[in-house]
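Researcher: I'm preparing a figure for a lab meeting and need a structural model of a single chain. I don't have an experimental structure, so a prediction will have to do for now. The sequence is pasted below. Please return the structure as tokens so I can convert it later.
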Amino acid sequence: MRLIDATKYRLPLAAYVSILHRASGAMMFLLLPLLVWLFDMSVTSEVSFEVFRSAFAAGIGFVPAWLLKLVMLGLIWAYLHHFVAGVRHLWMDATHSVSKSQGHQSAVVTFAISLPLTAALGAKLFGLF
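Model: Understood. Here is the structure written out token by token.
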């Protein structure tokens, strides 16, 4: 019996987009209670909105502000990647674009859109502008 060394395989870029699409969906689902709580804190009252704002400056309880911002950056990436990859899949379904080269090109476009948007919103989140 011949053993196959799976570490020698190289996945195409489209496979990474697909895997990350699933991972980003799972991340958003698992962190949905945090999102609901943050949304509730931001719209309930003026006092709760100030608590919401101060959480990103001073943290919440034992959770430091930088960790909360890092989790939010992960959620920003998850949303943007999931959205752009979902539009990619819809476009591929609508136009029947199933060739290897079209899959690679659309994967490059997916990363070219979602990663700079994530960086821009992350820079805003961390107060760089």
